[in-house]
Amino acid sequence: MSPEVGLVTAVLAVSTGAILVRWSDAPSSVAAFYRVLFTTLPLLPVAAWRYRDQFGRIDRRDLGFATLSGVALALHFASWFESLEWTSVAASVTLVQAQPVFVALGAWLLLRERVTRRIAVGIGVAVGGIVAMSLGDFLGGVLVGPAPLYGNGLALFGAVTAAGYVLAGRSLRQRLALVPYVVVVYGVCTVSLLALVLAQGHPLSGYPPREWAVFLGLAVGPGLFGHTVINWVLGYLESSVVSVSLLGEPVGATVLALVLLGEAPTRFTVVGGVIVLSGIYFTTTGTDR
Predict the structure, then answer these.
(1) What's the rounded Cα separation, in Å, for the pair 225 and 183?
(2) Which of 5, 152, 182, 235 is the most buried (most CB within 10 A)?
(3) What does the alpha-carbon distance between residue 93 and residue 277 come to, in Å, rounded to a whole number?
(4) Is-contact 143 124, C-beta < 8 A?
(5) Distance (Å, rounded) from C-alpha 188 to C-alpha 190?
(6) Start and end of every EamA domain (predicted)?
């Protein structure tokens, strides 16, 4: 499979994530837990067979950053899955995709990375689109979802925590191989989501076969064929190309929501979404790579 075909496959796969969450009747934190768990389990034999010696070489500092990365990833999944209960698929997926904007801001504030004029323009455009998307439907009186402002806020929090996941892992990937890194991070993420599920009092079993199929679909589709393939593609294509291509996820998810859920986005969501995606494009293509 060529990297280009792999990238198209990955974008299509991640576009199904929001639809699968919507099809699930289980609590959002339970769906998030099983997505990460089922994504992690196939990696454990590979890690134990080929990378077992590398786990002992992870020092305390790196383990701390990996833990922070895993907790941030858990918060990302929990907040984004929950946002889909309250707002439209189009708004939720577009807003959570604003992660590169917050990565650029975090890298400037925490890592003292340079912010180019193009990045600054991209951030400003994306923020304007977020405001238009979040407030336009509310002020216009046409709403999709029981509490769109709340859902949009959760999706934005998901973008911020995803940015924290990326920033925490940025230096770790320079020293750790991919499989040991993701096993530690996914392991922490799984334990964190398990703690959240138990704290909320949700059951871990007793779900019908349809729910288990959705949980498995979340792991195999967006997890295995989505993010795992993206990590493979990054070894062959420039990260800026991959980042911009991922802007197809909100478009794909919106089309799938229209076809499979009968959920048509409002005009404010469409216009605001186009503005947000334009801002993300400027931000990702303006970052020094």
Answers:
(1) 17
(2) 152
(3) 11
(4) no
(5) 5
(6) 6-134, 151-284
